[in-house]
Amino acid sequence: MRQDGFAILPNILTEGECDAARDALDRLEPNRAQGSFECLFNKDRAFERIYQVPDLLKFIRYFLGADALLSSMHGSILAPGAGGGALHADGAITGHNRDTSLAPADAGLRITSHVVALNCIVCISEFTDQNGATELVPGSHLHPTLDRPADAEVRAKPAFAGRGSVVVFNANTWHGPSKNRSDLPRYAVLNPWRRYWTRCEYELARVVAPEVLARAGEEGQVIFGMGALPPYLEIWQWDRNSGRPKEEATHLQRD
Ligand SMILES: O=C(O)CCC(=O)C(=O)O
Fold first, then answer.
1. Atom number of ligand 1 nearest to Cα 188
2. Atom of ligand 1 nearest to the CA of 177
3. Residue 192 domain-assigned?
4. Is 255 inside any structural domain?
5. Within a domain: residue 51?
6. Cα–Cα distance between 150 and 144 in angstroms, integer?
7. Is residue 165 a part of any domain in this protein?
8. Which of 132, 139, 94, 100 is nearest to 116 (CA)?
9. Is the pTM of the predicted complex or chain greater than 0.85?
10. How many structural domains comprise the chain?
11. 29-47, pLDDT tens digit by residue?
């Protein structure tokens, strides 16, 4: 992670868990245009497992802190012939790699001193040299500016990984799906994570279904960021842990 800007964690999901996730993606796929591939934890219980694997959580928190937030969770089915030629860094729309948000005083330099955000690609299919494995440019997380690092296409390395592995990378790292040259679709679940004090792609504390949150227990309160919700009342009326008004102010609750 420190040297290349990415790592492959094997055996995070079992074969059975991958089968369940693949079947759920197939079931959801027809309604993709209506958002069925967004916020997957609300769509099928198979996806709840992804943020419940202690080894993966430990790895994420090593880089982003104990209060790291899940930023979104979406599905990917890379069809035969799709992928390739789309290298990019993440966080260009809502994160710290957003062009418009660079200040004149930044002198064109993005944040490379710390990991501000990670992406985790869960390999529901095996990622092979044929089926569109994610490719990543080693060391590009340290590229100081927002523009494409020189020779990115030439330097990009495919992340070959077994089923159930997770490709974790710094959001700064240039990456993209390679071309799927096989005749089968490649399945994956994409899970970006961010620091507690940044704005996420979704305000998941408000998006997560109550029963999904309940099943996630105390960890869920942290992962979905109940405590990260900004107060809509004055601070003396607000309970930071639950992200809700204090008991004496419940009459001011908005949802
Ligand atoms: O599907 C892949 O291999 C890459 C996904 C990607 O580029 C992203 O999540 O930003």
1. 1
2. 3
3. yes
4. no
5. yes
6. 12
7. yes
8. 94
9. yes
10. 1
11. 999 999 999 999 999 999 9
